[in-house]
Each structure stands twice: as C-alpha cells, then as structure tokens.
UniProtKB/TrEMBL annotation:
Family affiliation: Belongs to the peptidase S28 family.
Signal sequence interval, chain numbering: 1-31
UniProt cross-references to InterPro entries, sorted A to Z: AB_hydrolase_fold (IPR029058), Peptidase_S28 (IPR008758), Ser_carbopepase_S28_SKS (IPR042269)
Protein name: Lysosomal Pro-X carboxypeptidase
Organism lineage: Eukaryota, Metazoa, Chordata, Craniata, Vertebrata
BP terms from Gene Ontology: angiogenesis involved in wound healing; negative regulation of systemic arterial blood pressure; proteolysis; regulation of blood vessel endothelial cell migration
Gene3D superfamilies, per the entry: alpha/beta hydrolase (3.40.50.1820), Serine carboxypeptidase S28, SKS domain (1.20.120.980)
Species per Swiss-Prot/TrEMBL record: Scleropages formosus
Amino acid sequence: IPPPSLPLLGSTLTSLMFTCLLSSLIPLLQIDHFGFFEDGTFKQRYLVNDQHWHEEGNPILFYTGNEGDITWFCNNTGFMWDVAEELGAMLVFAEHRYYGESMPFGQDSYKDAKHLNYLTSEQALADFAVLIRELKKTVPGAQDSPVVAIGGSYGGMLSAWMRMKYPNVVVGALAASAPIWQFTDMVPCSVFYKIVTEGFSRNGADCSDSIRKSWSAVDNVSSTEGGLKWLSNEFSLCSPLEKEDVLVFKAWLQETWVNLAMVNYPYEANFLQPLPRWPVQVACTYLQDSSLPDAPLLQGISKAVKMYYNYTGNTQCLRISETATGNLGYLGWYYQACTEMVMPMCTDGVQDMFEPQSWDFEAFSEECYGRFGARPRAQWAGTVYGGKDIGSHSNIVFSNGNLDPWSGGGVTQSFSSNLVAVVIQDGAHHLDLRFNNNYDPSSVLKARALELKYIKMWIEQHSLSNKAAAPCCL
C-alpha cells in the first residue's frame, strides 16, 4: 500500500483578516546544494507579513512549506496569525521546491528522473536555510532576529529536521502532526490503519464492522453487469464502473475513510472537503448495522461517502480519481515516497477495517521504477535524520492528536524538558495549528498555550545569549 499523501495544513477563514504579501526579493537558490556539477539556480517563492513586526530583532516565525502551493498555507495556518501580534513576529511562508510556483526547471521540472532528482527534503531544508540567511541580510532590523520553524504534517517533519540539521539557523521548532518515525523499521506498518479504524470504532463497533464487511459486499455486487450499474448509480459516479475499475473504486473508498479520520474536527471546516462537525461521527450514523445484506449495507456506505464529497449538496457526481484538495502536489509526493520517504503501510482486516494487504517493498520498488525510473532507499530517512535516536537535539515541540492516524509515526513521549511531546485528546490532524475556534476542545487550547510558552522561551534564550556574547567595553 503506497502511503497516503500527507495532507496540507489548513483551515478556512470566513473572511480574510490578514494579508500575505509576496516579497519583492525572490532569491536565486542553487538547484543542487550538495554537489558541484549542476550549478543552475531557480527562483523560490516565499510570502511575508510584517504587520506586527515593528522592532529591530523581533522574532520571525518561519513556516516550512509542504507539498503544495504556499499561498494556501499562508491564509490557512491560523496559529501563526493568532500569536503574531503578541510576539511582535514577522511571518514568513516558504514554498517547497517542486511545488506551487517554485519549479527548479520550469515546465520541465517533472519531465523525467533526471529533472526530478533534486526533489528531496534535504535540498528543501537547505533552501530554507539559505532563504533565512538572505532575509536576515536584506531585511533591515532582521540580522539578530530569532527564527522559529513551524510546520504541520510533512511541513512539521521539515520544521523538526530544520532544527536538527540547522540549529544555527532556527532557535526552535514546532512540529505538528509530524510522522518523523513513519519509516522502515521504526514503527509497525499496521499502526496507521489501526488508528483510522479506532476513530470509527469510537462511534460504535458496527461502524467499523460495516466498513470491514463492505469490501466483500463490493466484490459480490460488482460481479455482474447489473451490479456494476447499481453501484455506479448508488454512488452517483460520474463515469460508469467497469469490471477493471473495482480495485480503483475500493482504493477510493479506503482513502475516503483515511481522510475523514484525519479531518475529524470538532467544528464545520472545509480543509480537504466541506464537512460538518465531527464528520466521522456523522458518517457512522449511516453505518449502525453491520448485519445488513450487501445492498443495504452499501447504501449506508454510499451515504457516508456522499457526506464527505457532497456535504454542501452542490456536487453533481463523484469521481473515483479524486479524494483530496487540488492544492496537494500528489505527483511530487509520490516521487518523494518512491525515493527517500519510504513509509511502510499494511493492513490485516482484523485489527483494522480494511482488506488485508502486506507491505511488499520489492513490489513497491518495481512500481516506483516503472513510474519514475528511480528506486526507493528503504533506510535512508532513518540514516539521514537519526531515526528514533533524537535525544541529543533540543528546542523542539512535537504535537499530535490522538485521533490522527499519523500520530502512530509521531513523537508522543517527551525526551527531555526541551524535546517535548504534546498529545491532544480529541485532536485530529494538526488541530493545534488551525485558527482558534469556539468549538475547540480544552485540550487544544492548552496545547497552543504550551506551544506559545516554549516559543517565548526559545526567543528569550536567544536574547540572553546575544547579550552574553556582546562585548561590554573596549
């Protein structure tokens, strides 16, 4: 099972209260920071808001961009906006190379393996380090500003690794829903889908059991031409199902349940899709009897799926090729998963509600080679970022919601007083980085307060260090 795409961070503002300004300084970055053969450069896009940054040396909150267009992050990363005034902070949102408009080779960036070769997290981190250096050099008053890295999901992984790899550049990092251990030999391959299942089982065993039984129900119904037509009509599909589409249809259903688990927020939101409060709970209202025959069971599945894809009632039909927001750079993430970001996933149909599928690295490698002409390095992420041996690092807060499937690969226990884990009860994927909301559980309010406390502490440590280093006299 290839890993699901790490979702982008976000929440939607009912009205944009803030403005993200495209900086007039778009630095020319090296396409390859670690070699000397490819000496080309490219323009990296980044966004800046300095409305609360009024004093020399005030802090910079630096968002380490994920696999998507940076403008979307800028207007949807609520925590940074909510704390900017109190901290007097400048906000910077840096776009990840090969996503959005930051294309190293322009329209040829995805042409072949040769052009994609420089799409790695290591190159992206070096981009961020160079960008911060340039900002401090060119923005008056920023020379001594402490920089705090912040990110969610893949961006959270990057913020943690930024602090690990470039502690001279960032004074600390908030890594929200960052599965830095979702790699080979670090956590069981089954953990992700077990947490997805637990989220549905919280609303009654029949809910997850209905989904578990739905796979054989799909097989049974789709075995005839009439059954395929019935499924197409029942799920309001834009294109009629053919026999060869059944595996794709089931993969689409599986990704739907995964996405619902990740965005199970306590209020209406339109992160991946417009959804009601506690959408998993709503989906489970249609899945209360797992003993139903195939057709009525699948009618309940259909209602739950349509709640995800058509909560507003404005969608005319559903496409099984679409599961998430168009802001995701799916192809780029697929390439990263096929090279450095090897995240083993497996299911057994017993501890989870999905069809059994083992993790087959060799098959995955062949799939990647066929698609990109590149093979994955199973152990590389652990080698380059230290795996689970991170105790020597400092000034990182790892936050995870217990409802989030990616928490299984996250850091959920503190290593020390300055390498801290925050677990958010009733929290889905990076709930703490969303805007404050009246329906927020107390757990996320406490988490944000603690995160802000650590950010202030890192800023103060930087200030004291600078004072101690300054010469007192001639």
